[in-house]
Amino acid sequence: MALAFAALCATGANGTAKELVFGSWAPTNHGSNYALEPLFKTIQEKTNGALTWKFVSGGQIVNPRSTGQALRDNLIDAGIILPTVYTKELAANNAIYNLLGFGTDTAAIAGATVETIMLNCPQCLDEYRRMGATYLAGYGPTPYRLLCSKPVKGPEDVKGEKVQSLGTAARIIKAMGATPVTLSPSDSIPGLQRGALGCVHGPYVWVRIYGLDVIKSIIEAPLGTPRAFGLFVMSGASWKNLSADQKKLLWSEMPKATAAATIRGHIVEDQHAIEEAKKHGISFVPGASLKGVMDTFNAEEIGIVAAEAKSLGVKDPEALIAKHIELIRKWEALTKDIGQDEAKFAALLQSEVYSKIDPLKW
Predict the structure, then answer these.
(1) Which residue in 24, 99, 199, 226 is a FRET match for 86, CA 20 to 30 A apart?
(2) Does the pLDDT at position 3 exceed 80?
(3) Predicted pLDDT at 217
(4) What architecture (CATH level 2) is domain 2-141+226-276+298-361?
(5) How far is it, in rounded angstroms, from Cα 33 to Cα 131?
(6) 14 pLDDT band (50/70/90 cuts)?
(7) How far apart are CA 231 and CA 208, in angstroms?
(8) Which fold has domain 145-223?
(9) pTM summary value
(10) Do 18 and 52 contact (CB within 8 A), yes or no?
(11) How far apart are CA 92 and CA 310, in angstroms?
(12) Average of pLDDT values for 262-289?
């Protein structure tokens, strides 16, 4: 297998050109691609071809679970990390992920999460290092909602229904009186079609990707926002082998990549999904009563998340949780006027996080 990956890498005649491999499990229409494809083009242009990336997406060479091992074995040079498939290996990172109910502003949560991991959670970074990896950037998905296969007038119509959900989200589904069912998004559509599921728990964009023809109504109230995804996680060996100038260049581009994946790849794509859903006659229901459900859920969740993290060896998870919630409030103030301006968001990430770290010591 290593030989197969080696075949993907090319070296120029003078021995100085380097091609690295980015292996992504995400489909070609995933929001991360809005960041990665321009990033790789920029790196090639700014190095005059001395450093290039071969982008292999759509799960051709890695899936979410195998990405960590592929980084450790240096079979790929970088990839996207989904923390929920590494509950033990990335326990501190998952403590952050599991705070699904805190905050609904995608950009604010993305900024707060990057700052939490990179400046306030040494054990988060150590977890990656023990996996043989180096965390360089994250991104922010949009809030998850209920996408249902039949017309509903409000959350009360979902009580008792079976709802697809993953991880901590199952507790949110239980809190609103429904029954959580663990299924991947792609496996959920047949369940909706057969009537085995009433709804799926996911972002608006899933309507475009998976279910324009089967979704009939959407409850708009936010029901948790995922976080702590690794957008750009490098093999530790590959990062170490970059020259100082290459590290500095890659580092300088990370805020832009996070901004593009978050805003263009998720916030804007959600808006497109809403427009398409309305054209297909899908109804939108406010679901205002779910705010009370989420407030109660959050009040109980801090203790639950802390206890789970502590059982997995996370040190002082209460302090980590408190810091992340504090940073969400900070970033809500920072991002309240940026709208969909990627440059402004990237500038904030640079000033608040990346400028405070020396990439040569990372």
Answers:
(1) 199
(2) no
(3) 96
(4) 3-Layer(aba) Sandwich (3.40)
(5) 24
(6) very low
(7) 22
(8) D-Maltodextrin-Binding Protein; domain 2 (3.40.190)
(9) 0.91
(10) yes
(11) 9
(12) 95
- pLDDT band at residue 131 using 50, 70 and 90 as cut-offs: very high
How long, in residues, is the chain?
362
Tell which residue, 240, 248, 256, 234, has the closest CA to residue 47. 248
Nearest residue to 220 (alpha-carbon basis) of 283, 128, 296: 283
- Contact indicator for 149, 198 with CB cutoff of 8 Å: yes
Is residue 6 very low, low, confident or very high in pLDDT (cuts 50, 70, 90)? very low
What is the mean predicted confidence (pLDDT) over 202-228?
90
Question: At residue 250, what is the residue type?
Answer: L
Fold: same for 2-141+226-276+298-361 and 145-223: yes
Can you give the residue ranges of every domain in the chain?
2-141+226-276+298-361, 145-223
CB atoms within 10 A of CB 338: 19
Mean pLDDT, the chain, whole residue set: 92
pLDDT at position 318: 98
Q: Which residue has the tokens 């302090």?
A: 319
Q: Choose among 205, 327, 326: nearest CA to 277.
A: 205
197: alpha, beta or left? (left if phi > 0; alpha if psi -120 to 50):
beta
Residues 6+ apart with CB under 8 A from 312: 87, 88, 91, 94
Q: State how far the Cα of 155 lies from the Cα of 178, in Å rounded to an integer.
A: 10
